Amino acid sequence: MSSVARSVRSKTAPDKRRPARQSEARRPQLSVVQGGRESTNAVTGNLGQRARGVVEWASAQSTPLIHFVLAFSFLIACLLGSLLLRTQMVQHSFEASSVQKSISQLTQDVQDDQNRLDELQAALPEKAQKMGMVPQQGTNSVDLQGYRSIDHKQVGTPQVPPKQPADSNPMQSLSSSGGGQR
Amino acid sequence: MSNKRRNAKKGTSNDSLVTFAQRSTVIAVILSLVAVVALGKLAWIQLFDGSSTAEAATKSRTVPRTLRAQRGRILDANGMVLAQSLERYTIVGSPKAAGDFVPVACTQQTKRYCHEINGKPLGVSGPAAVARLLAPELGLNAMELGAQLSGKGSYVIIKKDVTPQVKRSIDKLNLAGVISAELSNQRSYPHGDLMGSLIGGVDATGKGVAGIEYMENGLLTGKDGYEIYQQGGQGQQIPGTETQSKQPVNGKDVRLTIDGDVQWYVQKALADGKATYQAGWAMAVVQDCATGQIIALADTENRSAGSVEAKMNPPLVVTQTFEPGSIGKTITLSGMLQENVRHMTDQFTVPDHLKFDGQEYRDANNHKPERWTMAGILQNSSNVGMVMASDKYTDQMRYDYLTKFGIGQPSGLGLQGESRGLLTSPQAWDRRTRNTVLFGQGYATNAIQLTNAISTIANKGVRNSQSLIKTVTDVDGKTNQETAKQPVRVIDEQVAGQVMNGMESVAEKFKNVASVDGYRVASKTGTAEVPGKNGGLTSIVSDWSGIIPADNPRFVVTVVMKDPQGTFGGLTAGPVFAQIGEFLMQKYEVPPSSPRTDAIPVEW
């Protein structure tokens, strides 16, 4: 029922809705050419008929052709877009893989260098000994027991603190020793 | 006529134009159709219909791979790396692929994947060609490698523990498909000779089998991860094809209480002492009095960490048990003072030998009867004096205080191969043993237990649990302090102070051979006969355990030597103790001691 209804509507106002039909009406005049090859005319005629068929079919639809073209273009664009995104994704994946590989290599290099540094550090004491270095021995202390700061008014007569052995009362002594060689 | 010709010519020209346009249109339409069909097919395969086809192909390419977790590091107290895992590769060859290998001659077009040595063609093919390319990179003999690759099968391990640098140079040989590399881990010990037996080692699978590696294997071992991905024709991962993955969790870092610097110096001092006194072996333990942390644990065996020797032989300090000799008198004195059966000022006339309960006891030196106090008996290390003073010190008290000080008890360190020593119950003691235990004979201990016993006195009578592990750090950097057991009070602070006072008098007696300038020392020497090679009591163990500084105890150092020339601990192990003590004071910048003013009289 619905197809019949569409057919009726297309006949009611052909000039207004489908102005292209006017040009098609002139096409038979163009096809009448003297001396033309029949075979060529037959092919083009067939193609023309098919094209006309498509156009007529499209014209027979309630949806305008422009909508159909837009929808089709949109679909094609989506298709191409998804293909592009997929390609891009794979490309990025390759790049990520490459970066990951570089990170792994750098990590390995850092590990190896650190290990080499540790080994050299471990060999330091032995090398120092071979060079004649010896660990620090003995402790030097400065005894501040009885120390008084020099009065600026009596600069000419400084008071010398009583001399005591370094370990006699080293409560306030300062050890001058460091950590010593390892 | 001419009009006809013109019309005919014009008609022919129009015809050819129409024909060209029609042909072009037809071709364009055909090409467009082909393009649309191709695009449609591509879209169909990629987006709709490809799934079933791709699924089968994907399934054949998809492989699971284990992601190995790295074993944690072992660090010293200062953060110095003692053990760590490094990424290495196992180079694997395929004899089958090597047999089919045909080198590609180098040209402008093939220069990215061709094969040559020093700019010259190989001249051979098959395994020989592969071996010629590969052998120089791995430092192997080309002929032996060629023979290795000439067999059948597709999996031959060529070399293990290959460095990443070498692996990368192998990658550039364009031998994919013939030679591959598998990621592995190698345990590295940068300070190999430093406490090798204590660190221990791992087996081929990376599992700890000795020493700290074994003891802390649970913490050091990580959790492997996995990933499932698609691989290419050469076995390489196709990027973006990873479907499932679980990242590995690396093992935790274990930081020891051992100070690498002190350990190194103690090892050196022991080696020097062993050479000087021509001892069979020497060992030493350094402990922090306040915390119970072991600062150094050394011996003269010097086994490299990770070596077979290090895996097979635990450190001497945990395996060697010995009678502590006169050092044991400090425990007896502590017990007698704590039980209030004696006081430091009690007066005795002490001969050099004594017959008691059918047994004869002698001092190390002959002397006339001496008027000594308890402090004097300790200072002169008199066996006879100890027996005389212990008339009210029951067998059960003797056993209880030895046990409370940790003799015959596990140290709690958990070291593999550690002996808890030997202490029998008082019911098993005979008439002699019940008295010899007073001066450190009749029971056995190891150097770690003995150190903690002296450290208890230094720590005002409180016995700490000893520890070797300071902290454990996970991969996220979260550090956990190892929880120590609750300290136990063994003797009163006042009693500990009195024993310290007596030990300081002992150290003063040896100030000419074992003193540290600027610092007061409290110590006790010991000498005991131990079984020799023939099983008889033919060997001597000389030991010295000292607290430094005596006025503000920081460290306890125990030095033990076997069969030193000089016999007595004070003359052999004592100087080594002084050397170590001096280094400790310098290293930790300990303020010098105040003068001694409260010495308990040793004579009357």
Give a summary of the structure in a few sentences:
Chain A: Residues 1-43, 130-182 are annotated as: Disordered. Chain A: This is Cell division protein FtsL. Chain A is 64% helix and 2% strand.
Draw up the topology in text.
The complex is a heterodimer of chains A (182) and B (604).
Chain A lengths: L1 H11 L1 H4 L2 H12 L6 H23 L4 H66 L10 E2 L31 E2 L7
Antiparallel strand pairs in A: 1-2
Chain B lengths: L1 H60 E6 L6 E2 L5 E13 L1 H5 L27 H12 L3 H7 L7 E7 L1 H8 L7 E10 L7 H4 L1 E2 L5 E3 H5 L1 H4 L4 E6 L13 E3 L6 E4 L3 H18 L4 E7 L5 E6 L8 H5 L3 H4 L1 E2 L6 H10 L8 E4 L2 E4 L2 E4 L7 E4 H6 L3 H7 L5 H10 L28 H4 L8 E2 H12 L3 E2 L5 E5 L5 E3 L6 E2 L3 H17 L12 E9 L8 E10 L6 E8 L6 H19 L17
Parallel strand pairs in B: 2-10
Antiparallel strand pairs in B: 1-8, 2-3, 3-4, 3-5, 6-7, 8-9, 10-20, 11-12, 11-25, 13-18, 14-17, 15-16, 19-22, 20-21, 23-24, 24-25
Helix pairs in contact in B: 3-4, 9-19, 12-15, 12-18
Subcellular location (chain B): Membrane
Main location (chain B): membrane
Keywords (chain B): Membrane, Transmembrane, Transmembrane helix
Descriptive report:
The complex is a heterodimer of chains A (182) and B (604). Chain A is mainly alpha-helical and 182 residues long. Helices cover 64% and strands 2% of the residues of chain A. Chain A has helices spanning 2-12, 14-17, 20-31, 38-60, 65-130, and strands at 141-142, 174-175. A two-stranded antiparallel ribbon of chain A has the order 1-2. Chain A is rod-shaped, with a radius of gyration of 52 Å. The termini of chain A are far apart. With 604 residues, chain B is an alpha+beta fold. Chain B folds into two domains: 85-190, Penicillin-binding protein 2a (Domain 2) (Alpha-Beta Complex), CATH 3.90.1310; 260-587, Beta-lactamase (3-Layer(aba) Sandwich), CATH 3.40.710.10. Helices cover 36% and strands 21% of the residues of chain B. In chain B, helix 9 packs antiparallel against helix 19, helix 12 (329-338) crosses helix 15 (395-404) and helix 12 packs antiparallel against helix 18 (493-509). Chain B is elongated. The mean pLDDT of chain B is 89. The chains are: A mainly alpha (182), B alpha+beta (604). At the A-B interface, helix 4 and helix 5 of A face helix 1, strand 3, helix 5, helix 9 and helix 19 of B.
